[in-house]
Amino acid sequence: MEENHYSAEESRLVHRMLLAEKTAKDLELEAARILVDWQIRLYTKTLWDSPEQVVWTNMVMPTELFYAYGLVPVHTEMTAGWMSSLRLSEEYIRIAQERGFHVGLCSYHKAVIGAMECGDIPPPRLAVFSSHICDGGNGLLQYFRQRFQTPVYLLDVPYQQQGESAVRFVEGQLRNLTKFLENHTGKTLYSKALANAVRYSNHSRCWQRAVNELRKGPVLFYGNQALRNLFGLFFLSGSSKGERAAEAYYRQLKERSSQPSARPVTDRPPRRILWVHFAPLYAGEVMRYFEKALGCLITFDIIGHVYWPELDEDAPLMGLAQKVLSHFYLTDSRQRMDLYRRIIEEYRIDGVVLFMHQGCRAIPGASWELRLIAEQGKISFLELPGDCIDPRGFSSEQVKLRMEAFRESMDLHAKGRKGESYVLGD
Amino acid sequence: MVINEKLLYFCSYVPVEYLKARGFVMVGPGDTDALLDAGMPYSSSRAVCRYMQHCARMDFSRYDGVIFTHCCSSAERVFDFIQFRYPGLFLHMLELPGRMDDMGRKQLAGEYRRLFRELERRFGKREKMSSRFRKTKGTGREVWLLGNSLHPRWKNAVQTIFLDEPLGFSDCSSSRRGDRFLDSDDIDESCPRMLDFLPWFSKRLEEKRDDIRAVIGVFIPKCDFSLFTMPQIRRICHEQNCPVLLLEEEFGPSLSEQNRIRLEAFREMLERKRRTTKKTNK
Lengths: 426, 282
Fold this sequence. Notes:
The complex is a heterodimer of chains A (426) and B (282).
Chain A: H1 12-24, H2 30-49, E1 54-57, H3 64-68, E2 72-75, H4 76-85, H5 89-98, H6 107-117, E3 127-130, H7 136-148, E4 152-155, H8 164-185, H9 191-215, H10 224-230, H11 232-235, H12 240-257, E5 271-276, H13 284-293, E6 296-301, H14 316-325, H15 333-346, E7 351-357, H16 367-377, E8 380-386, H17 396-414, E9 423-424
Parallel strand pairs in A: 1-2, 3-4, 5-6, 5-7, 7-8, 8-9
Helix pairs in contact in A: 1-2, 2-10, 2-12, 4-6, 5-6, 8-14, 9-12
Chain B: E1 6-9, H1 16-20, E2 25-27, H2 50-56, E3 65-70, H3 73-85, E4 90-95, H4 102-123, E5 142-147, H5 152-161, E6 167-170, H6 177-183, H7 197-207, E7 212-219, H8 224-239, E8 244-248, H9 257-281
């Protein structure tokens, strides 16, 4: 494929991003403003002007190593999220399906494929993905390599192994990754740069943990904003900007915790919700209805959970290997269920919503764990089927109806009618 | 030596014949119809692929152990559930390498050592009997049928359509990849889960172009690896001027009527092509 086919001037994504820039200034959370500002620059400038700096990756791949090399990671999930928010995903997904990609594939990946196929984003020069949690990452790498001859690297993560040999195995792959990056970028990894990236990452982790502590208290903001924008903090792990955004997040919430008037207002008595998985990014209005009109405040979302231990500054690659292996979807069900129970207790959760993203096998495939916990703990559980990126087939009224029924079930629980458990999805 | 431990397995990378030679009774998912409706509870299983749904419905109380292969998230979820539901059962997750290069081969060899070690720890040391594994030879020009998990009866149904057309299967339950690897670790095999699958497929097709008359790709709607590779397979086949048919079929014993018609039409097209080639040669 000829590279000159791709131009920022003709990209619809770039045009809409520039329009979004104007509204981004109105975002309530400063951290979200920092992240969105960075992301807009990434998609409108860096991707086009400095493609040699860009490495495509996926959400569970640790980014510290990329920042240490002076590279800019671009996440497929974040990219597709923007496409959905900017109402472009439907068109891109259609294009991908016309090229033979199956309707059942994850829409995050199809949206990115469609955008590359039609020239709205340039093809990747380099791609490094991790194999865990998401099967589509591997497929996308194969597509990149076959379609654009992109050099690709897959970090192969074993399942349910956290012992020394597993850490050594992943660490060895990270060491090979440094050679791969050096070969394909011509850059050198300086130990000082890696130490700095690890330090930034650890600082950011501390701020995020402090934020999560604050979220155990009164609800300080509409949690949908965290689902929509603040997962971007993980994409900046290892960068000074990431540390700055995480600190801003904490400081703003800390300030709010002493100002009750700055907290979210709801039309009905508030209930505290744990949200599992991402949310539909094209349906902001429905999410606002859930929180404001129904009073179901997203107190905590599982994607905000800081699951990894502090990185060892003296052994950074080993620390990154431990980070990868500590993901809670690589542990057994009992450990994961204990984690959910702890979150439900510490965040005083009234109800759990699992968004069953079509195309995802890993998280919806474990929905029985949450249902069992909800039954045992006598709390409401809503299994909400849908798609985070693809708006086709989404009915806001149907979803609202399910959300209303879920709210009613929480009210029944609050009235003390124990034993009533409302579960959708049967 | 009479040992009756029964082990379930779901993937051709499990060295079935080697384990049989150690006295285990090996049972594949297509070997039994004894399904139990008390598998994965509630509606969770709809997110995982139909093959793993099928596996999750098996009556695990009949077996002494299960050997999973870490190929996808669906396998992880079923592994979790069985581990939770049957805490005493021997469970092993065989890790597959991301690519079959030197590193991958080393990793796979290590994985087999780990499997044998864990089996020994659980069931005691086994005297290794001689392997009964025999390599099967190719049949000359054949139609190459590749997919993820194909039920043995489904394969038989397809074979009845292609009566005089030999079919070569590459799928999760055929090929005995594990045994072949242990016999000689230079096996030329890959699967869609591996990063080098498409280059391997392209090279294999090119090298054996004279022996491969056509390609039929079959995929389960929820197997991401196959879904990603199928459009590329079609492209590679077109580039190499090889007839290709892509089918979508859920795992199960029966061949859908819709796919039967497509297979019959494809066979007719191959026959017509063969007749035309013969005439041209005359």
